[in-house]
Amino acid sequence: MSSRRQSPKILKKSDNAPLTRADLQYDLLASLFSDTNEVFTDPFPSQLDTRAARSRVTFRNLYVNAIMNSPKASKLLKDKMSDTSEFATHFAMLSLLTNVGRINTTMSFFPEMKTTIRTYHPVPALQRTSGSLQDAPRLKSILKALVYDCDSPKLATTLRDCRSRIDTGISPPTHIANLIFILANETISVSKLHFSGEVDFLDLFTSTRFSSHSRARAFLWLVYNYYEATAQSSEPLGSDTVRTDNNPFSDPSRPGERPLLEELTEAETALENVDPDDEKEISEKLVSQRMQFLAAQSPKEFSKVGRNSVKDDESVMSIESAVKSKAKRRGASGTGKTKNGKSAADATEGVDHSAPIRFSDVQYRSSPLQMRQPRLIAASMHRFSPYARSHERHWTNVALTRSPPRTLLEHAWHVVARSDPLADSDEEMEDAHCRNDYGLYRLYNAFFPSSFFPRKVRSLIVHSFHTVQRLNIVCRLRGKDPTPEPE
Questions:
Q1: Looking at the DSSP assignment, which residues form a beta bridge with residue 315?
Q2: CA gap 392, 387 in Å, rounded
Q3: For the chain, how long is the longest CA-to-CA vector?
Q4: pLDDT tens, position by position, 374-394
């Protein structure tokens, strides 16, 4: 009984807007990570203490240790989590919200963010220490990269997979992060099987009429059901689900059953997730720090594009620097010459760096992928920015030409063949053509701002631009212009 989320309850905030305790449902997270029941089996050796694998731990230690055992977790992050228990808890809280799909993957949480495809959001309730909470894509990649022995050769992706593993005596059926991904993906099924359609799994992490403590206990009961169930101790309720009779989080008056959700009045609801004054000060301080960082990056562009825009100042390697670095590796030590005896300066002689490399269809299919890369910008000191400078704001300098450096077909193949879905956000758009595409998008917003042009007009403009590009491709495939034949 599998079902995908129809309307995920994802946090949506404008740039620089803080995530409050109500947004995070902080009281719910605090109840989860302060629970003292050591009932969960940790399949990994503990990096928090000297416990061996398959020790019984609390939910907090189980989740924190899972993050620290991920191949995507850096050594700096692991050291910080080991040294500072409070930071480890806060990092795990934010990771859990990403795990259930509550955090939007366009969100970033460190003020020094440079990329323009993320929005910055301070999280004062979780940023009381000096550690970096990174950004949502990194948090998700850390959880996705976690490796559990029982997930080989096939990762469990549904509740049915968990049920079949439990029947064969595998417990836990998968690691904790993947189990939560499964529960979030099958939220409608979970709602029908365990909550009688009253609430779904994601409602446990949003502001509802139920108390935070009762929602936290219901979450722990549900996780324990699937994580700790065995073929002998569980009673099958269907093809996808189980009920564990010795669940420590069950209703005391009904062993094995889900704990009841405690309803709150409006007055009681207002007393939960209240932001203290010091966290409001932390939020203002972080936003101010972000503004200072942006101003230091580029004072002129910052003053022109406004406080909510970020200049993407990623460097682009020049063709000269690329050739020189190759000459150093290949040539004799100290000579600065290539294998065939030519110097780096000679290697670039006679090359038109401003003209893009063109391949025929046969050449493109037969050439190595590395050779299909375009030549990079010739100016060695030029730094890429999607914003046109004040003396360059005209159409000819932003590659809005009828002959782009790479056609749409070539660019689509390049993206599919070379992109890494688990790449960190700082590694994104490292290709010059990806930057060019994004620069066109930013230029479109600069020339046609939403404050002056209605949405329909803006959509018509961008649609017309893409139509011209598609028409050029069709003309290339047909080998002739789209002009109608004379009658």
A1: 383
A2: 9
A3: 88
A4: 433 333 344 444 444 444 444
